[in-house]
């Protein structure tokens, strides 16, 4: 099978929302009047971002999910995406499953594939996603103010638990491992919550490299500090993992605060918006939990539920460290 046969069979679909999709030198996108185009790009490399044993349908889902998560953090509505795909060879069962997982999530969010590229090489997936957001309404990293609450969506740390189980550093019951592995391999982008938070949240970022590191982007961009409740953050590690595994406080805090690959949203909002944030969570069927506050004093202070400083050190994922 040649390159263009591969594209036609597995990735070409009629464009419904975009004026021009796959097949020309460029795709054409037309955001609605008064909207801004939100664009993000993410790359997944085998052995770095996913294991060779991953179900290709889950990999197709995750490849798009990590990009949709960036749109969610901006409060944007998905429109379309491009796919650049390097393949070691043409494996038709793999391609069928990968494209099925990819398009299932794309269809769920009304996001069309409108172009891209394919080549032979080590397995590498690069997606650029396009969304739209009303002019001036995008959620940014730079809007947090002293006194704001810090919130997180969904659960944290489950992907890190799965990774540690794969590494052999801890043992998980089969059902807990299956749940944690699902969170690692098939994350849920919080697109509906991101849009519901427009006009309520003051700043937002998605949790891809770990809560502490990603919250740090908000603090740096907003020129503020924060106090983070480690116990509140640990409390949103999936219930199955905490209830039946007998894991210690240190590993749970590490997973929740430094884990990465959660693709949840960490965001800030004024105290007066608490009820509105909780309503946004209900409207989007997404759990939201307060885990700290923004401070005028620079730096991040991590404390326990009683307010005592936590001595444990927490890091953030970095590809080159």
Strand content: 15-25%
- Major beta sheet summary: 6 strands, mixed
Q: Any idea what the radius of gyration is? A: 20 Å
Pick out the low-confidence regions.
Answer: none
In angstroms, what separates the terminal alpha carbons?
40 Å
Q: Give the overall form.
A: globular
What's the β-strand tally? 10
Descriptive tags:
single chain; 24% strand; 11 helices; 321 residues; six-stranded mixed sheet; 36% helix; four-stranded mixed sheet; alpha+beta; globular
Explain the overall architecture.
By secondary structure, this protein is of the alpha+beta class. The chain is 36% helix and 24% strand. It is built from eleven helices and ten strands. Strands 6-8-5-9-7-10 form a six-stranded mixed β-sheet, with helices on both faces. It has a four-stranded mixed β-sheet with strand order 1-4-2-3. The chain is globular, with a radius of gyration of 20 Å.
In short:
The chain has 321 residues and is of the alpha+beta class. The chain has helices at residues 3-10, 56-74, 92-108, 158-167, 174-185, 191-196, 211-222, 230-234, 239-244, 249-258, 274-283; strands spanning 35-45, 77-87, 112-120, 124-134, 149-153, 203-207, 225-229, 264-269, 288-295, 299-303. The longest helix is centred in the N-terminal third of the chain and has 19 residues, at 56-74.
